[in-house]
Design brief:
6 strands; three-stranded antiparallel beta sheet; single chain; alpha/beta; 271 residues; globular; 8 helices; three-stranded parallel beta sheet; Amidase signature (AS) enzymes; 2 domains
Length: 271
Amino acid sequence: MHWAFKPLPLTNLDQFATGLVGTRSPYGITKNSFNDKYVSGGSSAGSAVVVANGTVPLSLGTDTAGSGRVPAALNNLIGLKPTKGAFSTAGVVPACKSLDCPSVFSLNLSDAQLAFNIMAKPDFDNCEYSRALPSNPVRQYPAKLKVAVPTSFEGLWYGDEENPKIYANAVETLKKAGAEIVPVDFTPLLDLAKCLYEGTWVAERWAATREFLATNPPEKELDPTVAGIIRGGAKHDAATAYEYEYKREAILKQVQKSFEGIDVYLTRHLD
């Protein structure tokens, strides 16, 4: 008698949570669950693929820049990123500790909500950023939702001709459902995202890994792109870190203003 076993999907991740493609690892590429010619998204690539392939009904990832939502989007899953401190980071290998959030991959919203209800508990003894959640007010949404649609995506599709059509179809679907489409400038959010990899927050990745890198691990154990990004964090000084923090706060004021009166923000990942 011959037994046929379906091999488990590769559960590899982008090394040191640095990457959004699922390919940045010396231990193999995590392939998209629908088409192996497409990336699976990262850095929590494997966590998403095992849910999308039906191996498990739910899994955990991390999300600093998009690592828990990009793989979800590319593998047709729910990707839940809580606000910082809602989930404890105890036991999580840090990427940028001041920004890191554990995340949830699930097949449906109910499972994601269940996971949130279980995990959203204070853990003051083990997580520096842990916090107690405020009471959840019941918000009454208007019958005609105001949906913000960025006006500054032009030129940011990088030659892709398929996804702009999918995005446009999503906008039309919301219109047909009765939503009011409100054009907004996406530039402040894009500027904020750039700070994460072009600013001093890369130094946090260096702080998280420098003891390991000081052991001089063989180069074959390091993804060259990841190693280059992390080692670049060593060049930043404390004064520059404060400068970027001031910049971040100024950008946030612009972002908050653009959210006024908005019920839903329809965007896409640009990481």
